[in-house]
Amino acid sequence: MKKILFTFTGVIVLIYTWLQLIFLGGFTIENILLYPNVFHDIPHSLEITSEFLQVTNPGSYFPILGMSVIVVGIITFILTWRMKSIRYWILSSVIVFILGNFIFSVIYAWPRNQILFVEGAAVHSIAYLQQISHEFILGNWVRVVTSVVTALLAFTGWMNFYRYKITSEKKSSLQ
Known about the structure:
By secondary structure, the chain is mainly alpha-helical. It has one domain (2-51, 63-169). The chain contains 5 helices and no strands. It is elongated. The two termini are 19 Å apart.
C-alpha cells in the first residue's frame, strides 16, 4: 500500500509539473504570437480580435488550466507533506502561481480586459485604449516571468522527488 501511494504521489508531482509547463508555454505563445496582432492598430485590431475570438479565446482556456494547476498543486503539496525536500518547492510554486497568475490577473489584467475588449472605443478614447494596451502587455510579461518561476519551482520539486525516490530505492535494496 505504501509503495502504491508513493507511486501515485510521483505521478501527481509529474502531472503538476507538466501542468505548470503547459501553462507557461500557453502564456508565452499568447504573448509572442497573439498579442502583437491584437494590439498593433488600436482600436481596429481590438475590434478584429473580438470578432475573431468569438468561439473561444484565452479567457476560455487559462481560467480552467489555472484552476487545474492550483488544485493539483494543493493535492501535490498534501501528498508530499512528509517529504521535506520536496514540499517547500511545491508550496512555493503554488503560492507564487496564486499570487502572480491568479490574484495579479484579477487585480491588474481583468479590469484592463474589460476596458479593451468590452467597453472599447465606444466608451474610451483611442489614446486611453493605447495606454491601457501597453499596461496590459507589460502586465502579461510579468505573468510570463511568474510562470517561468512557478514552472522552475515545480520542476525542482519533481527533480527532488525523483532523487528522493532513487535514494529510497537504494535504501530498500540495501536492507
